[in-house]
Task: inverse folding
């Protein structure tokens, strides 16, 4: 008898935090803040990592 896989809520929290922080940085850049290219790339990286963490939380267990 195997136990049902549990969802890792840490992935949900980290994903939302990364997505929110990266989205905020991109929003401030688009509304006129001057950032270096490196900071913009880091913000996009946060958005990608946040999206991946949310993917792991919502859809990873359904594939197995």
Result:
């Amino acid at each position: 008898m195997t136990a049902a896989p549990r969802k890792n809520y840490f992935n949900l929290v980290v994903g939302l935090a990364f997505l929110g922080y990266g989205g905020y940085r991109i929003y401030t850049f688009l509304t006129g803040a001057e950032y270096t290219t490196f900071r913009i790339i880091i913000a996009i990286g946060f958005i990608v990592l946040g999206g991946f963490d949310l993917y792991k939380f919502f859809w990873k267990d359904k594939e197995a």
Notes: The mean pLDDT is 89. Residues 33 and 51 are 24 Å apart (CA to CA).
